[in-house]
């Protein structure tokens, strides 16, 4: 999903179902306002979160929404599912409209999930070329050692997809516990990387995406809005 911007005359033509030529008198008369300011330039770019008014008619007043959720185990990272609770089901109903996920967690994993209605913002987080690190904590069935650290740093070959993962960071916290940082998020990637090392992930918990850390005051299933600083600095 992307956030689309249009020329003002194109947006108004579609919204009012009139020709672009017929908009000129409205613009000249100062009847068009964008974010409270009178606009005369028909070529001005407008986006989905601009407030747009023509005379007394409000055409658009959509607000950007950015949420973090502490995902519990047994919840699907999706906006709808016929059989299971989804992360969207855990969001207050008045905030759900147009939300999508900026990165998923598998059914049994827990921790930070980000949701937004801003497609440009979410795209920069999910695309590996932007270099945003995701931080996870894992507990394991067998002990980890320095050979695992080296294997993660070198990248691992997934023959079925004919690809090699990007280098990942692995920090050993205890004999059966470690932190992992990834710049990508392929299907069950961490579980599969440990499986290649002959180990099994018992629990997987996402602690951070970029500079945004999971709020420790959020109980499983709870969410809150991101702060302005979190929104702007997440991919710095």
Automatic annotation (TrEMBL):
It comes from the Bacteria. Residues 6-63 form the RNA-binding S4 domain. Belongs to the pseudouridine synthase RsuA family. Keywords: Isomerase, RNA-binding. Responsible for synthesis of pseudouridine from uracil-516 in 16S ribosomal RNA. InterPro entries: PsdUridine_s_RsuA/RluB/E/F_cat, PsdUridine_synth_cat_dom_sf, PsdUridine_synth_RsuA/RluA, PsdUridine_synth_RsuA/RluB/E/F, PsdUridine_synth_RsuA/RluB_CS, RsuA_PseudoU_synthase, S4_RNA-bd, S4_RNA-bd_sf. This is Pseudouridine synthase. GO terms for molecular function: 16S rRNA pseudouridine(516) synthase activity; RNA binding. It catalyses: uridine(516) in 16S rRNA = pseudouridine(516) in 16S rRNA.
């Amino acid at each position: 999903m992307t956030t689309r911007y249009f020329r003002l005359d194109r947006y108004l033509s579609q919204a009012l179902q009139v020709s672009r030529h017929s908009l000129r008198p409205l613009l000249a008369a100062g009847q068009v306002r964008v974010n409270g300011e009178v606009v005369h330039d028909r070529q001005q770019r407008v986006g989905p979160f601009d407030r747009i008014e023509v005379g007394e008619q409000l055409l658009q007043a959509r607000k950007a929404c950015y949420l973090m959720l502490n995902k519990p185990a047994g919840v699907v990272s999706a906006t709808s599912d016929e059989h299971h609770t989804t992360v969207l089901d855990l969001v207050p109903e008045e905030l759900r409209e147009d939300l999508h996920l900026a990165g998923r967690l598998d059914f049994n994993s827990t921790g930070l999930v980000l949701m937004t209605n801003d497609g440009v913002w979410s795209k920069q987080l999910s695309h590996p070329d932007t270099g945003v690190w995701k931080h996870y904590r894992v507990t394991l069935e067998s002990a980890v050692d320095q050979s695992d650290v080296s294997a993660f740093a070198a990248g691992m070959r997934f023959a079925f997809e004919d690809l090699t993962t990007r280098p990942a960071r692995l920090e050993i916290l205890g004999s059966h516990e470690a932190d992992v940082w990834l710049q990508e998020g392929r299907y069950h990637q961490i579980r599969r990387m440990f499986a290649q090392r002959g180990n099994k992930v018992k629990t997987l918990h996402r602690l951070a995406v970029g500079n945004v850390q999971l709020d420790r005051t959020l109980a499983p299933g709870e969410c809150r809005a991101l702060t302005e600083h979190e929104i702007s600095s997440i991919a710095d």
